[in-house]
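A student in our group prepared the protein record below, which I am reviewing. What it holds is a sequence and that sequence's fold in token form. My question to you is simply how this chain folds and whether the tokens agree. Do not assume that whoever made the record got everything right. I have pasted the whole thing underneath without changing anything:
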Amino acid sequence: MGSHAPAVWAARHRGQSSPSKTEAVTMCSLVISTNLRKDTIPDNFCTEATKLLADVLDIAPKYILVQVCPDQMMTVAGSDGHCANLNLSGVGSVGPEKNRKLAPKLSEFIHKQLHIPKDRFHVNIFDIPKSFCVWNGQIFD
């Protein structure tokens, strides 16, 4: 954060606890589309995914959104067996080094939690410019 960043953060996030001096304001959203039925998704899946992303990407959980869209009509390699498409978008939280660290951990998490083979889901990672993301009524930049 720049020298004026804490004041800017405070002005934009009134009523929110301010980040520590070392906490950069970053965020990420993980949206998972899958053909799994809703009743097969573990009840704590979103909470556990949030913990994983917070740990691996070093983001405060309050800046993480996880959404699961079950019961989708979809195929991978022409087969409608269990599959998923994951879109992870981040502001200041993704990049080549973090993506390399995240890829095996997120893949293993999806495989273990949802029982989808690793070759039956794709993970797309997008780095979003701060000025293209709104949170708490303000853009991030």
Notes: Helices lie at 5-12, 45-57, 96-114.
